[in-house]
């Protein structure tokens, strides 16, 4: 069935997953529009409650219309679209709402591509274009429809780029998760790509987990400073709850900053700098809880030990690549792991920082260039070294090649003569059996002298086949020689020409007697 569906609106070789039937026409258009606008509406609706909660805890009260209107710039910020608040730039945007939008888009894209057929070439591009285009269009519309009297503003071109890229990233994840690659594309991917991606994923998890651990330790040891910031910014339970919700939205940014600190370059807030090598406090003390964690003095010497974490991540990535059975594919797999890890860390650092209202804490910088260089040095070098070292007890490279010597197979033990397997062998066996039977009949005739031996004058029938009895081959059945037909002028007398053998011997009756019995099977 799949071969017939390959050509139903899709290129040849575009596989259709089992149980799916491609749709076309208006039904296909309906699914694409539902996925595009559905992801826009769902992502927007999920941001309305937290926005309304933060507004309500501010003390001014909130209405339904105000909550929906305030969610528009929040939705734009979730797409990493730079904003302007009161004329001041704001591009340090929270990553947690961005992760929420990416997750919603990934789920919607996966549903759409499965619903219209699940073909990579015919369906994946349509789903990606429709969802990314819808988010980009709505982002431009939202930025243009913001009232001029509002304190928040966004550039339309930035809205188009940010909305389209974030939605496209989520759509790619959803399509790759639900849509199978065609066999010809899978055959073009080298064998070391997948292990390299697995190694990169493990290295990224180690680095981000280390950043989360550093942030947790900073929160524990800096609890007094955080409490003082809450008292200054939001005294009381409900205002503190609203500030906590905003801080949770920026929590992934803080984790990325902690990862950059583990890698060595650290991060900067305004004139302040934080790294494992040196720390300089900012010009003023911030009242935002996460900003209050900035150290006020130089780091202790033992903090240099955290540089062992990226080295360990590189060793882990190299060990994953070294599990490949093909020795020549390990170093390319390690190169893939290093490249992917470096690019992802650079992207996270780029998104975690930005402008912060041109004040004392502007800008917030997590330098992507220095972080990528640190990944190449502390993660890449150990990964390449570990991947390039042969495992203990591993055969030499020559044994992995096709020209490697093959050990000689042991000689087979002597066995019983094989049975006939071809027609020629069977015919030869029959001829030997016929010759043996004729020799046996001649010997019996010479030995008897008076009576012909049983089966004298018998011949082997051409259609007779040997019969297998207890592992041996018996002689074929023999047929009696037919009685000679009388001449046309002779009178046929019933019973004539067949007389019982005379008692005198075989010479007197042998001319008129024809044996008519069959030889019995010999065991």
From TrEMBL:
Renumbered residue ranges of the record's region Disordered: 396-420, 438-523
InterPro entries in the record: DUF6350 (IPR045931)
Transmembrane helix listed as a keyword: yes
Ranges of Low complexity composition bias in the record: 438-461, 493-506
Keyword field contains Nucleotide-binding: no
Organism: Pseudonocardia thermophila
Pfam families for the chain: DUF6350
Name under which the protein is recorded: Uncharacterized protein
Transmembrane annotation, as ranges: 31-54, 91-113, 125-145, 157-176, 204-230, 236-253, 260-280, 300-321, 333-358, 370-390
Swiss-Prot/TrEMBL keywords: Membrane, Transmembrane, Transmembrane helix
